[in-house]
Automatic annotation (TrEMBL):
The name this protein goes by in its record: Major facilitator superfamily (MFS) profile domain-containing protein
One Pfam family this sequence matches: MFS_1
Positions in coiled-coil regions: none
Membrane topology classification: Multi-pass membrane protein
One GO cellular component term: plasma membrane
PROSITE patterns: MFS
Organism: Pacificitalea manganoxidans
Positions of region (Disordered): 1-26
Transmembrane segments annotated in the record for this chain: 67-87, 99-118, 124-145, 157-179, 185-207, 228-247, 253-272, 293-315, 327-348, 360-378, 384-410, 431-452, 458-479
């Protein structure tokens, strides 16, 4: 397939250049780009969970209960999901490279603002601004990667990029705990400054020039879909708030019911709203769901991510509440899930090439579900080497599942719809991460409240429930995917032989 990079080399050059690297790694020219984008992903995903360990310390500093500080975590996740749809339009109008650089700079500035916050209200405002910048960084970073990577090398490039997405949420609570224990909570946000500076300098040197898609002044620019954006914001924010209410009921019941009703109403209005005048790009291009592989990868990817993303959260609770471990000791074990992503990296492309997407996604989802059940059954008397092995192998399975989903979702997306696809995929990814944690918390709270599984047993029961969701996703992939699906990107380009040359 021809290279779609603006001003880039031809498809033949892309294949030839990739031949210099081993078949299981991206070509040397792609590695810097993938690593550049991965820095942005690391900052955004790290900040999605790093604050959890610091909630008591921040509450003490502000003189409020730690439970109230939890809003700083929730508002970050919700804002990320809400703002991602705007990234597609901004990238097309102002240029993906330009918006990406400004987003990284904005994330650094708002991180500094969060560190300097003197009240919960200030912290919440800074977290909203921080998430807004993060919502621009990651989808546009993904767009830059797929736009400037030959399709035959896309799987390897995304594997390199995806590692921090898997490491960040797991590393966050551990790093946050260490910082709070041995330093002070504002340092949690200040770590983004050196990371962001490295990413900014790296991006300015590596990212190719990327003019706006509509550079001709004679051609009117597509307007932003403000109505659609507002409706999507209502759907995502209201859904997340309602789920949080099941765990921590802080709002009056009538308001909660109104928010619950707002979700289907706003979605119905979005689906049946009149076309904007003048015509422009929708906030979320749901017509992408007509693309078969995009629909299947994203549709079954949501329950897969929900089930798998809940495990690190539940495992932290299990080790601390069930085993009586300290937060530092529990975090040291849970971080091995991130170690699984590192262990997998040299073998991921080979596994994809040999198993394909159907067998890989379906079979590995079953493995992840079985490992989740195994982790639910461990107890304080379980030998530490057994627990460590289970956590590490689960981390490998988790990393493989996310790599396969992240790659397949773009397998049949045409070049002119890449920006819209990254926005929709980003919303699905971010929302499923938030839902995984929220649904797991709901299960623990409700199972305990109803007396079905009191105490630590509720955590184990919730883990089994999340395993069932993961297994359902695997069954969905097995029934809907074909063996040849995604073959064009599962097999990397080969070096042409001297004879054929």
């Amino acid at each position: 397939m021809a290279d779609t990079r603006p001003g880039g080399s031809s498809g033949e050059d892309g294949v030839a250049n990739s031949a210099a690297s081993p078949p299981d790694s991206p070509p040397a020219s792609i590695v810097p780009l993938a690593l550049c984008v991965s820095i942005a992903f690391l900052m955004e995903t790290l900040d999605s969970t790093i604050l959890i360990a610091a909630l008591p310390a921040i509450g003490d500093d502000f003189g409020i209960p730690p439970l109230r500080v939890n809003v700083a975590v929730t508002v970050y996740l919700v804002t990320l999901a809400v703002m991602i749809p705007a990234s597609s339009w901004l990238a097309d109008r102002f240029g993906a490279r330009r918006v990406f650089l400004l987003a990284v700079l904005g994330f650094m500035v708002t991180s500094l603002g969060a560190a300097l916050s003197q009240s919960l209200a200030q912290l919440v405002v800074m977290r909203i601004a921080q998430a807004t910048a993060g919502a621009m960084m990651t989808p546009i970073g993904r767009l830059l990667l797929i736009r400037h990577t030959p399709r035959a090398q896309l799987a390897s490039a995304i594997i390199w990029m995806s590692t921090p997405v898997q490491i960040g949420p797991v590393l966050g609570p551990l790093l946050g705990g260490w910082i709070v224990t041995y330093a002070t909570w504002p340092l949690i946000f200040l770590v983004n400054l050196p990371l962001g500076l490295i990413g900014l300098v790296f991006a300015m040197r590596i990212l190719p020039a990327d003019a706006p898609a509509q550079s001709d002044r004679a051609t009117p620019r597509a307007p932003f879909d403000w109505r659609g954006f507002g409706l999507i914001a209502i759907v995502l924010a209201a859904a997340q708030i309602v789920i949080d209410q099941l765990v921590h009921p802080l709002l009056p019941v009538p308001l909660t019911l109104a928010l619950l009703l707002a979700v289907p109403v706003a979605m119905g209005l979005y689906l049946h709203r009149p076309a904007p005048r003048p015509p422009g790009k929708p906030a979320l291009d749901l017509s992408l769901m007509r693309l078969r592989l995009f629909r299947l990868a994203l549709g079954w990817g949501v329950p897969a991510r929900i089930g798998i993303n809940a495990v690190p959260f539940l495992l932290q609770l299990q080790l601390q509440l069930g085993f009586g471990w300290s937060a530092a000791r529990a975090g040291t074990v849970v971080v091995l899930i991130a170690g699984g992503a590192i262990v997998l990296k040299p073998f991921a492309a080979m596994i994809l090439r040999r198993a394909g997407f159907r067998r890989g996604l379906a079979g590995n989802a079953g493995i992840a579900a079985a490992l989740t059940v195994a982790l639910a059954l461990v107890g304080p008397d379980t030998p530490l080497p057994v627990l460590v092995a289970l956590v590490l192998v689960f981390g490998i399975s988790r990393s493989l599942q996310f790599n396969l989903i992240n790659t397949l979702v773009f397998a049949d997306v045409p070049a002119d719809r890449q920006s819209s696809s990254t926005a929709l995929a980003g919303v699905g990814q971010q929302l499923s991460m938030a839902l995984g944690i929220s649904i797991a918390a709901v299960l623990v709270a409700q199972l305990g409240a109803l007396g079905i599984a009191p105490g630590a047993d509720a955590i184990s029961a919730a883990m089994v429930g999340m395993a069932a969701i993961t297994a359902l996703a695997g069954l969905g992939y097995a029934l809907t995917l074909r063996g040849e699906d995604g073959a064009a990107i599962a097999t990397p380009a080969r070096r042409p032989t001297k004879r054929s040359a």
